[in-house]
Amino acid sequence: MMTTQTVLNLGQRSLEVMLLVSAPLLLTALVVGLIVSIFQAATQINEMTLSFIPKMLAIFLAMLLTGPWMLSTLIDYTRELFQNIPFIIG
To answer: What is the distance of C-alpha 49 from the center of its chain?
Structure first.
């Protein structure tokens, strides 16, 4: 039976998976942005592309490294969700 607790549990689990999957890319962008900002402050170079290009390359590299894990996590969650549909509906 679909209760409010079931809906809250589904929403909580989906938010957990979303945060887990997006964390490697967001942390990579954060670290690279911090390093570039320190470099820009030290050299007083204020070029917009200097912060954009390294972030883009680092996120691409992070996607290559963590992409299979991200995809398998999403597939596992989707499979679990589809398998639980009969129990959720009642």
So the answer is: 24
What is the spatial distance between Cα 89 and Cα 86, in angstroms, rounded to a whole number? 5
DSSP code for 44:
T
Give the pLDDT band of residue 42 (cuts 50, 70, 90). very high
Largest Cα–Cα separation, the chain = 63
CA 54, 57, 62, 68: dihedral to nearest 10 degrees?
Answer: 170
Task: Check residue 24 and give left, alpha or beta (phi > 0: left; psi -120 to 50: alpha).
Answer: alpha
Q: How far apart are CA 61 and CA 50, in angstroms?
A: 17
